[in-house]
Structures are given as structure tokens and as C-alpha cells.
Amino acid sequence: MDYLYKISVVVPVYNAGKYLHRCLDSLVNQAFSGYEIVLVNDGSTDDSGKICDAYAAQYPNITVFNKENGGVSSARQCGLDNSRGEYLLYVDSDDWIELDMLADMYNSAVETNSDIVYCDFYREFKNETRYAYQGVDGSYLLELFNHTRDGVLWNKLIRRECFTSNNIAFDNKINLWEDLYICCRILLKGATVKYLNKAYYHYDCYSNPNSILRNESIKDIYSLMNFVSYFEEILDDKNLLRVSKATIKDKVFKKRYMPIFKWIMLYKEINVWYIETYKGDTKNPITLAMIGMIKLYRFLFDRSLN
């Protein structure tokens, strides 16, 4: 199949006006040619749309798509559907990349004929930068399942056919850990992988107050439950439940994603929805573990008050 571009860089944008220039400047100044930048304005209410349009007017390889707010998964799917590159790179609007990222990752993909090329990255905090090493000694898929490596999309250059040939799409019901879900689905289809031992991506951990990991709600809880349900199907297909059930349970309830007091505040709604939905599924170990964890947190909280 002939592609118009070597790489499509897809950037979901939502109320990112304060830091969007930083992201886009790192993209338009790449030491690489033959790439497009697809900006998906996901119903922003600030000046993000105007910034996107201004860059598109200046750079002919930038295209802007405006849509109603639907979340990061729908924005990424919009970018996938409306881009024309052989490879895809997803970049968050509050992050930025090194100027040689596209060139190095694309050249590696071509030289090794890899479906996925991934790299290390930097975690950017207010007063420090931390290096996130992503190399693996064994199976990359198992490293992701066991959460010893980060199952994010933005440090990965992915061949478009990994999506189109396998009917893999972003699911609007999953807005938390959708990266991990997509990565694992692609890897389970036999995608070939190449690792570059260099950090090209800067992940901003402090600037964006709209980050989904900083604004949990009951809607996000439903997303977590959907994530677990989808993961059960994936793992069951490959008989990997034994390896990963504890990891998934840990991911969903880990304190760094949602402090325990927020679980307690939301407990009643979670309890009613999740337990009533899945109480009949007595054979699935992940379902039982999830129900058990919800009840356990409530039990421990009640005990702490006595």
C-alpha cells in the first residue's frame, strides 16, 4: 500500500493552550521530512483551537480536526481515521519530543522491518527530570502485563497496519489505561518490536490540571471496570490470566492512581454497579479479586473508624 507520509503524528488536544506551543514547536522542528501532524481538537473551551489553526496556517503538513468532546480514545481514533502515514506516533498535547525522535525511530523501523519501535522517556516534574528506562530482558508483552515497563503509546512508533489489518480501534468506553489495552492487543497479534536505548519523549507530570489521572470521577471508575473486563477477554484468549490477574488488580486499585479516601467516597456507587453486574461470574478469578478488593477497602476503612 502506498502512503502519503512516512509518519503521522497524532495529537489529541483538550484545553492545552498554556503548553500547546511547547508541544507543537518540538514537532514542527523535527530533523525529518515526509511526516504529517494531525491535531484533533476535542471540544476545547480555551484558545487551543485558535493555536492549532495558527500552526496549520503556517505549516502545510499540519491538519486540524475539530470535534465535540469525547475523550482521549475518540480523539486518537479520529486521528487514526484521518491520517495518511505508514507509521503512527501519538503525542499528548502537554508533552514534547526530542528533535531527532522521528528520524531515529523511523530509520530503526525501516532498517529492522519492525512493526513497533519504542524508546526510553523522561518524566518531567516541577523541580526535577527522571529518566525512565524501558529496556527488557525477556518478553516485552509480559513486562507490560506485569507493569515492570510502561504500556504507553507515546513512546512507540507503530505501523498503521497493526491497527487496520487486525481491526484494532480505540474504545470510547476505556479512557484510563487505554494505552496499555491497545499495546497489548497489538502485541498479541504478533507485532515485531525494536527497542531504542535513548529517551526521546518528555512526559509532563505536573503542568496539566486536565490530566485524566488527576481528575478521577465515577465515570472513570466505570472506565476502570471496562478496562478489567476487556483485559479478561484478552488474557483468556492467550491463557495469561495466571500471570496477570494480580497485576491488573494492583493497577486498578493502586494508591498512586486513586487515594483510598476517594475509593471510600465512591464506594457505594462502585459497589452497587460492579458487584451487581458481575456477581454471577463466580468462575473468573479477576472478577472475584476485584469484588474482594472493593469489599476489603470498605472493611478496612470501617475498622479504622472504630
The best one-word shape is: globular
Count of helix runs: 11
Strand content: 15-25%
Largest sheet: 9 strands, mixed
Distance between the termini: 67 Å
Radius of gyration: 20 Å
E-strand count: 9
Overall average pLDDT: 79
Which CATH architecture of the largest domain?
A: Alpha-Beta Complex
Poorly predicted ranges (pLDDT <50, ≥5 residues)? Answer: 211-218, 241-245, 255-275, 294-306
Provide a brief overview of the structure.
By secondary structure, this protein is of the alpha/beta class. About 45% of the residues lie in helices and about 20% in strands. Helix 8 (about 220-240) runs antiparallel to helix 9 (about 240-255) and helix 8 (about 220-240) packs across helix 10.
